[in-house]
Design a protein that fits this description.
The strands form four sheets. A six-stranded parallel beta sheet has the order 3-2-1-4-5-6, with helices on both faces. Strands 11-15-10-16-17 form a five-stranded parallel beta sheet, with helices on both faces. It has a three-stranded mixed beta sheet with strand order 7-8-9, with helices on one face. It folds into three domains: about 1-170, NAD(P)-binding Rossmann-like Domain (Rossmann fold), CATH 3.40.50; about 175-270, 6-phosphogluconate dehydrogenase C-terminal fold (Orthogonal Bundle), CATH 1.10.3660; about 275-470, Rossmann fold (3-Layer(aba) Sandwich), CATH 3.40.50.300. With about 475 residues, it is of the alpha/beta class. Helix 6 (about 170-195) crosses helix 7. It has helices at about 10-25, 35-45, 75-80, 100-105, 150-160, 170-195, 205-215, 220-230, 230-255, 260-270, 290-300, 310-315, 350-360, 365-380, 390-395, 410-415, 425-435, 455-470, and strands spanning about 1-10, 25-35, 50, 65, 90, 110-115, 115-120, 140, 165, 280-285, 305, 325-330, 335-340, 340-345, 385, 400-405, 450. The structure holds 2'-deoxycytidine-5'-monophosphate. 2'-deoxycytidine-5'-monophosphate binds next to helix 12, helix 13 and helix 17.
Length: about 475
């Protein structure tokens, strides 16, 4: 696609682009520069770039990627602009677009500048944080009115990294991103600031606070620039937020109207309403920890949770089952299966029910019926779906596929703890039956992340959460 690419700034974004360009063969060579010498040597030792070069003369390169804090983008462009050749494309990756667009349009160059913003950041920075496939399934906003061949080429470039390019006006971008990305960072930084003095807090940190502290670990230089150069819209978003905060504060003070406030927000179900439906598929044998992990992820993300095994179990336990009357309900963070309004979770959890479900699951007609029910339950929402064939058959386009597994002794011990009367032999037999059947057998999807869950639950969840955050952020 390109002959020679030059990346200025080899942090998380620049470094991750470098990985993908090399892995996908999108350029014959990738050179780079970073103001920080140690970043440069790390980038070289990780193989992110073929060579490190100064930025004085870049006339040889056909794509230049400027991936530095927003305030430095025009400064860098000014430095390189006069050396660039006709036909060279320059893109940036900054999170503020109007400022960049205005500043670079005043700089003369033979090159063509296309402002881009891949919405793919995470809190880590530096070349060590670079990730392969970071841009897969992510939006990239391109803020130009031009629809010429260079823009087409850049659209194609982002598509080959698995991203979804979206063309948008720069001001519109800044307004939207102020709310969807900059405001959460303002809140995270200020929230953590308000707790710093309290030495006891870290000891008792729950999941909610941990999410804020994670965001507040983002690069101060990068976020300072964003707040400065998108000041108008960030302040506008903060004003709106302050009003909401005051509203809730008043209601808490008075002790009235709290439920209405929270219910209105909950029923907006914003986490279900992303621009795209996101499906996370979790497969594996019994006792691998699928349910605990899937429920945890679903609760954290506010996604629906579907336990397909529970549906097969119900089909095996209830004669003349009317599957339209089945529903998963989340009550206080606990997901249970309800039939005709009645909680049937306890009824279906025995190993005998598991074995009958496994027998029934060999039948393609039953599988089709359950799959249809799953599609209906999920609709257009984002969901965590667990089972045996979620990643291979039911949701082959899931944004993330996890295959959880552990040695049989570990799994059997877990099951014993769950009090479901399953012996090791029964579990092994069921696994063999599920793995060897011809209809949708239990196998890891080719693109699944395989995770051995033998370690402590806490460390497994931590690892999986970080994979999830990287995938869907
Ligand atoms: O996950 P579980 O143990 O509740 O599942 C019970 C049985 O249901 C399992 O042994 C095989 C079958 N099943 C299936 O064939 N496909 C699924 N997606 C989920 C479960």
């Amino acid at each position: 696609m390109f002959e020679k690419v030059f990346i200025i700034g080899l942090g998380l974004i620049g470094g991750s682009i470098a990985y993908d360009i090399k892995d996908r063969g999108l350029a014959k060579m990738v050179a780079g520069y970073d103001i920080n010498n140690s970043n440069l040597s790390v980038a070289k030792s990780l193989g992110l770039i073929n060579t490190a070069l100064p930025i004085e003369d870049l006339s040889d390169f056909d794509l230049i990627i400027i991936s530095v804090p927003v305030g430095d983008i025009p400064k860098i462009y000014k430095k390189i602009a006069s050396s660039l050749s006709e036909g060279t494309i320059v893109i940036d990756t900054g999170s503020v677009k109007k400022f960049v667009l205005d500043a670079v349009s005043k700089i003369k160059s033979k090159a063509f500048f296309i402002p881009c913003h891949p919405i793919a950041g995470i809190e880590n920075n530096g070349p060590h944080a670079a990730l392969r496939g970071l841009f897969n399934n992510k939006n990239v906003i391109i803020t130009t009115d031009d629809r010429g061949s260079d823009v087409e080429k850049i659209i194609k470039f982002w598509k080959s990294l698995g991203s979804y390019p979206v063309l948008m006006d720069a001001t519109e971008h800044d307004k939207i991103i102020a709310v969807m990305s900059h405001l959460p960072h303002v809140i995270a930084y200020s929230l953590v600031d308000s707790t710093i003095e309290d030495a006891e807090i870290p000891k008792f940190m729950g999941g909610g606070m941990a999410d804020f502290t994670r965001i507040a670990c983002s690069s101060p230089k990068m976020w300072r620039d964003i707040f400065v150069y998108n000041k108008e819209y960030v302040l506008f978003a903060i004003d709106k937020y302050e009003k909401s905060l005051c509203k809730l504060k008043t209601r808490i003070k008075k002790g009235t109207g709290i439920m209405e406030f929270l219910s209105r927000v909950q029923s907006a179900k914003l986490s279900h309403k992303r621009d795209r439906q996101l499906i996370i598929a979790v497969d594996g044998p019994s006792g691998a920890g699928k349910s605990s992990v899937s429920r945890e992820i679903a609760n954290r993300l506010g996604f629906l949770y579907i336990d397909s095994g529970a549906l097969y179990r119900t089909k095996a336990c209830i004669v003349d089952l009317d599957i339209k009357k089945l529903a998963f309900e989340n009550y206080n963070g606990k997901w249970n299966l309800f039939y005709n309004g009645k909680n049937i979770d306890n009824l279906i959890r025995s190993e005998a029910a598991g074995k009958s479900a496994s027998d029934m699951a060999k039948n393609t007609k039953v599988r089709n019926e359950i799959n249809e029910l799953i599609y209906r339950m999920v609709g257009n929402d984002s969901a965590v779906v667990e089972g045996r064939d979620m990643g291979t058959k039911v949701f082959p386009n899931a944004v993330l596929k996890l295959f959880l597994d552990a040695p049989i002794d570990v799994r059997a011990k877990r099951r014993k703890k769950d009090d479901c009367n399953a012996t090791k032999e029964q579990m092994e037999n069921r696994d063999i039956q599920d793995t060897e059947r011809s209809a949708a057998p239990l196998v890891p999807a080719k693109d699944a992340v395989y995770i051995d869950t033998s370690a402590s639950y806490k460390s497994v969840v931590k690892m999986i959460n970080s994979i999830v955050v990287r995938t869907i952020h």
